[in-house]
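Here is one such tokenized protein:
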Amino acid sequence: MTRFHTGAATALLTAMLTGWLEPAAALAQAQAATPSSAQPSRSDADGAPAGAARHVDGYDVGAAAVNVVWIPFKIGVCGISSGLAALAFIATLGTGRDWSASVFEEGCVHKWLIQGDDFRPAAVQTPGNQESRP
């Protein structure tokens, strides 16, 4: 039975990496993102339409590699902080609910996936391109 599970997991991972199968979160985000105007929106990075595929560069590959370590670390931090928050909530009989909520939020709610844009340097403006301030 374990050989079946290994084969199924390998097939699923291969399908996701090659683009045949998109994760459910990506599909939900694609369906939720609707343009607010009739004009096609442009991405900030390259001026291409938002629906166009982006070129994958070293920053995106590096972000994927970092996510291999980051996600298990984040799961651990979320689990430990949730446990501590629950213990603190119980130990204070509910009076420490604000602290418990902030500990849970800090460990579990913030960003889970690292993207290439997190590593990519910001565009540098030259002094001639700055607008004059009154």
